[in-house]
Design a protein that fits this description.
16 helices, alpha/beta, Rossmann fold, Zinc Finger, Delta Prime, domain 3, single chain, five-stranded parallel β-sheet, binds zinc ion
Length: about 325
């Protein structure tokens, strides 16, 4: 329910649009909602569905409290059908089941909604089955297809849908969302700048090593900026022990990217509001660099990200980056 309360703030353009369409009774038969994981595609689809069924709506927006709204939120509404991958894919049997559910509705004339999560995971036969369904829409049916990558959906399906891309929340919005869940101010600012969605940020926030990783990577970066040789051993001693899997690798690299990118802003005189605890130390050292050096450093870390896509040891890559950054800042 919390997420549904938030969706109007996170996706104001889309919720306004859909509220208006509901009010005008101009809903299309099929919508394709796209955007990264955790951005709120499912929540938006549920919010619109509530708007359709709500007994108490205001200008197309659902009340979130009536019987209909509650049943939709809890996944217990008889006229709202969810389809999600069964194992790795959405199979043709699942689409057949969906169609049989909807053939009943034709008789009763009820409004029906179906929501297909990870629609790109449909098998070819499932996609073809769905396509026939979308080509012959029966009266009161609205479909929501959700996907992280619209490129993996059959073009013939895409062409039957209205496509909407969900906007990424700004760093400030993410930070505010995290603060409300009880994350400390310092941590919320870093996470707000690090993550693409509130789900991703909340997930990182639960990583018990995250605070330590932030502290250690800041000390490492301080030593890189100071030209202090301790930064070389710190990769193995202080950073690698906190990196246990691919997700951790991404977090560490994104923290380094954030530190190095933030250095450009600091160089050009912006106050460092992200790494607050290290603000004074970083600023003093960064001000002594040149515009060329702070820019080149960003290119170095972005090149490192590319290097990681090839299968090489993460530790080797971070050690090489430490050498490159040290040379860049102190040449
Ligand atoms: Zn309601």
């Amino acid at each position: 329910m919390d997420e549904i309360n938030e969706i109007q703030k996170q996706q104001p353009v889309l919720t306004d649009y859909f509220a208006n369409v509901i009010m005008q009774e101009h809903l299309a038969h099929a919508y394709l909602l796209t955007g990264p994981k955790g951005i709120g595609k499912r929540t938006l689809a549920l919010w619109v569905t509530q708007g359709i069924f709500c007994q108490n709506k205001t200008a197309g927006s659902p009340c979130l409290n009536c019987e209909e709204c509650r049943r939709i939120a809890s996944g217990n509404h008889p006229d709202v059908v969810h389809v999600a991958p069964d194992g790795l894919s959405i199979k043709v049997e699942q689409i057949r089941f969906l169609k049989s559910e909807f053939s009943k509705s034709g008789v009763e004339g009820n409004q029906k909604v179906f929501i297909i999560e990870d629609a790109d995971k449909m098998t070819v036969s499932a996609a073809n089955g769905l396509l026939k369904f979308l080509e012959e829409p029966s009266g009161n049916v609205v479909a929501f297809l959700l996907t992280e990558s619209v490129n993996r959906i059959l073009p013939t399906i895409v062409s039957r849908c209205q496509l909407f891309e969900l906007a990424k929340p700004t760093s400030a919005q993410l930070t505010a969302t995290l603060r409300k869940t009880g994350v400390t101010a310092d941590k919320a600012i870093i996470l707000g700048n690090l993550a693409d969605s509130s789900d991703e940020a909340k997930k990182i926030a639960t990583n018990e090593d995250f605070d330590k990783l932030v502290r250690n990577v800041c000390v490492w970066y301080l030593h890189v900026l100071q030209g202090d040789a301790r930064c070389f051993v710190e990769v193995q001693m202080n950073l690698m022990p906190l990196v246990n899997n691919k997700d951790d690798e991404v977090i560490l690299l994104n923290l380094i990217i954030l530190l190095v990118k933030n250095s450009i802003s600091v160089y050009y005189g912006e106050k460092d509001n992200i790494f607050v605890k290290f603000q004074a130390d970083f600023t003093e050292l960064i001000e002594k660099l040149t515009a060329e050096k702070v820019t080149e450093a960003v290119e170095l870390v972005l090149a490192t990200r590319k290097r990681l896509m090839v299968n090489v040891s993460f530790q080797n890559v971070i050690e090489a980056l430490t050498i490159d950054l040290s040379q860049c800042y102190h040449s």
